[in-house]
Amino acid sequence: MSAVALVLVGDELLSGKFSDENGPLVIRSLRERGARLVRLAVVQDRVEEIAAEVRLALGVADWVLTSGGIGPTHDDLTYEGVAAGLGVPLEQRPELVAILDRYEIAKTTATLRMARIPAGSELLASPGSPLPVVRAGRVIVLPGVPKLFREALGAALALVRGEPLFTARVTTALREVDFADRLSALVAAHPLVQVGSYPRPDGVTIVTLESCDEAALSGMSAEVSALLQGR
């Protein structure tokens, strides 16, 4: 099962000018695929911050996805940040310059920035996207515009390895303080099952269980049900 980190780049997200739409899409897509999102970060439009987060994310994830910061304006710095994080220079790619010509975009200092990507990157085709996706090692650079992000996400998901995920949930009127110690003991005894406890406003607590091992999940679910329902 692949572990994935997502780096959302943009001052507009941190300032609240715009709400993030891409993070929830990645979370849903990875869950459906049976992969894990292990880190989600939002960083400013700063080369050094993007670089630092890319290095950190590569230390905990198999794949790092970035969103935003690949247009022609002054605040589009993701290619530079990823290159700095990987310790490689930028290079202008003729394939990307050709796309400017195809869409009749004048080649200026600003627009050519979209053709300068981390050296050695691979250009990936994505179903439904007219533009290639840049893969720099284990970093996949995606656009920030939600429509373009959705179109490009397929190229990243094609690289992600997933496993079937089995789930269960148990509800109880008990408070967490009534069962926390005993639940912790069960969790320690069943390392293949991930467990979460979530009190709700109506006084009900929902305990969720997830595992790629169906038998382990079944056994743990029975024990949690017995604990929370007093059997």
Q: Could you characterize the architecture of this molecule?
A:
This protein is α/β, with parallel strands linked by helices and 231 residues long. It folds into two domains: 3-157, Molybdenum Cofactor Biosythetic Enzyme, Chain A; 166-228, Ribosomal Protein S8, Chain: A, domain 1. Helix content is 40%, strand content 25%. A six-stranded mixed sheet has the order 2-1-3-8-7-6, with helices on both faces. The protein has a three-stranded antiparallel sheet with strand order 9-11-10, with helices on one face. β7 (133-136) and β8 form a beta hairpin. α8 packs antiparallel against α9 (214-228). The two termini are 35 Å apart.
Rg over alpha carbons: 22 Å
CATH class of the largest domain: Alpha Beta
Superfamily (CATH H level) name of the largest domain? MoaB/Mog-like domain
- Alpha plus pi helix count: 9
Q: What are its keywords?
A:
single chain; 231 residues; alpha/beta; Molybdenum Cofactor Biosythetic Enzyme, Chain A; Ribosomal Protein S8, Chain: A, domain 1; six-stranded mixed beta sheet; 9 helices; 25% strand
Would you summarize the structure shown here?
The chain is α/β, with parallel strands linked by helices and 231 residues long.
List the helices and strands and how they pair.
Blueprint: E1 3-9, H1 11-15, H2 22-33, E2 36-43, H3 47-58, E3 63-67, H4 78-86, E4 90-92, H5 94-102, H6 109-112, E5 116-118, E6 122-124, E7 133-136, E8 139-142, H7 146-157, E9 166-172, H8 176-189, E10 194-199, E11 205-211, H9 214-228
Parallel strand pairs: 1-2, 1-3, 3-8
Antiparallel strand pairs: 4-5, 6-7, 7-8, 9-11, 10-11
